[in-house]
Amino acid sequence: MISQRGKTLLLILKKQNAAVNGSRLAHDCGCSVNTIRKEIMILNDILEKEGGCSILSQKAKGYMLKIEDDLKANLFFANMNLRTSHIIAHDYNTDQVYRPYY
């Protein structure tokens, strides 16, 4: 099962055409960069089995969603029912000040 943070990550990555910096993802999700890395590892296991896509890591650029099987990926995202308003209302942590973690 994909966590709410995982759904948020997928929604952000799905909307982007270019790589997204890990610190930007951490800021948007209200967590540390290390948490983003762990969540992406979990998501990749699920995506490779069920989703027909994967999250690629590009050194000095960030993360991006790579779709290998369009039909399988579209079905996966449709079944997940990602709604922007739901994710923003329940997962985005806009009250916190962004603090980088090293």
Blueprint of the fold:
Blueprint: H1 4-15, H2 22-29, H3 33-51, E1 53-58, E2 62-67, H4 70-80, H5 84-90
Antiparallel strand pairs: 1-2
Helix pairs in contact: 1-5, 2-3
Summarize the model shown.
This protein has helices at about 5-15, 20-30, 35-50, 70-80, 85-90, and strands spanning about 55-60, 60-65. By secondary structure, the chain is mainly α.
Rg, Cα atoms, Å: 13 Å
Mean pLDDT: 80
Task: Kindly name the structural category.
Answer: mainly alpha
Enumerate the strands of the largest sheet in spatial order, edge to edge or round the barrel. Answer: 1-2
How would a textbook summarize the main sheet? Answer: 2 strands, antiparallel
- End-to-end distance: 29 Å
- Oligomeric nature of the chains: single chain
